Amino acid sequence: MSSHGTFPSQEIARLIKDGAIASAAGIAPEQIQPSSLDLTLSVEAYSMTGSLLPLGGEKVRDLIERFARYPISLREPAVLVRDNVYLVRLRESLKLPQGVAAYANNKSSTGRIDLQTRVICDKNPRYDRVPEGYEGELWLEIIPKSFDVKVRAGDSVNQTIFYSERTFVLGNDLARLSRKTPLMFAAGEAVPQPAGDGLLMTLDLEQDIVGYVAKKSLKPKPIDLAAIGKHDPEDYFEPIKRPKDGALFLSQNAFYIFSTYEYISVPPDFAVEMLPYDTSAGEFRAHYAGFFDPGFGYGAKGEVKGTPAVLEVRPYEDDLIVRHRQPVCKMAYERLTAPPDKLYGVGVKSNYAQQRGPRLSKFFKPA
C-alpha cells in the first residue's frame, strides 16, 4: 500500500473501526463505496438567513445561534423549499488522525435534481474541505435550486473521500497511463491521451434526446428522496431534442442535464474528479457531483469500454449557445493507496454504471 493517496473502501472501513469516523446511529456497510463514504442526515436542521462559512475560531453552532431563522426536526419527513438555505447536522462525526483529511461533494443522484450540498466544519472557512486531523461535528448546507425536496434523518445526499495527500496523475504520467490502460473511448475506440492535467471531455448533441431542462416555472410536488423510481419525469423536466443546426441555446440560470460525447474508464487503482469549469471555456457550471469511484466504466477486468459522464449545467452570467463536441470539463485521475475490495458496478449496487446518454436521477421513473 502506498503511503499517500486517496483511501479505498477497506481503508475507510479501518477508519470506522478505529473510531476516526463515528455515528450515533452506526455506519451501515452499504455507506462504504469503493473509494468514498455516503454521509447521512441527522434529525437536527435549521433554516438559515443565507449561506455562510465559519471564520477561524468559530464553530458552526456559533453561526446557527446568530443566523438561524428557525429549527427543523427531520425525525419525520420535512420539505426543504427551493431557493432557501438550510443547515443540517450530519450523523457522522470525525476524529481524524494527523495526516488524514477529507473532501466532500454531491452524490450523483442529488446533483441531477439540482440540489446543492456543501459540507461545513468548525473553524474552517472553506466548503467541502475537512482539514487533516479534524475532530468534531460535520454540517451540511443544502440549497434546493430547482425543486422542493422531502428529506428525513438517515437520507444520504452527499459523499466524502478520505486521503493522505491527494496524488493526481499529471503530465507525461497521464499519457503513459493512457497507453497502458485506455482511459477514454469515442465511438467504441480507445483515445490515447496527451500529457496534461486531465482528460478533456466534450458535449454530445447528436443523440435523439440530447438533454433535459428543469421546469423551474412550475411548482410540482416535492421530490421525496426516499421514493426511488416513483416520480414522473414529465412533472419536473422537459426533454431536449437533437438541434437541427447543431447548436443549442441555454438560458441564464436554467438547469440542464447533458452527457459527454466521450466515455471514460476508471481503473481499480484510481478515482476521478471532474474538475470545476474553466471560465475561459464559458461562464457555466458543468457539475455538482464530480467524483467517480474506481470501476466506473471499467468493469471487473477492463471489459467495459467506458461510460459517458452526465453533466449538470447551469449558465450564470449570460445566455449561452453550445455546439456538438464543445469542451465542457476535464477529468482528473488520482491514485488510491491500494485497489479497493469492491468496484463500482461490480458487486456494488449502482444506478448509473450502465448509463448511456443524459440520464435523469434515480428518483424518477425510467423513461
Quick structural overview:
This protein is mainly beta. The protein has helices at residues 9-17, 60-67, 108-111, 172-180, and strands at residues 5-6, 21-23, 37-39, 41-48, 68-73, 78-80, 85-95, 101-106, 115-121, 129-130, 135-144, 149-151, 158-164, 184-186, 189-190, 199-202, 209-214, 223-224, 237-241, 247-250, 256-264, 270-274, 284-285, 291-292, 307-315, 320-323, 327-335.
Task: Describe this protein's structure.
The chain starts with a strand and ends in a 32-residue tail after the last strand. It has helices at residues 9-17, 60-67, 108-111, 172-180, and strands at residues 5-6, 21-23, 37-39, 41-48, 68-73, 78-80, 85-95, 101-106, 115-121, 129-130, 135-144, 149-151, 158-164, 184-186, 189-190, 199-202, 209-214, 223-224, 237-241, 247-250, 256-264, 270-274, 284-285, 291-292, 307-315, 320-323, 327-335. 8% of the residues lie in helices and 37% in strands. It has four helices and 27 strands. It is globular, with a radius of gyration of 20 Å. With 367 residues, the chain is mainly beta. The strands form six sheets. Strands 14, 15, 17, 19, 21, 23 and 25 form a seven-stranded antiparallel β-sheet that branches. Strands 2, 4, 5, 7, 9 and 11 form a six-stranded antiparallel β-sheet that branches.
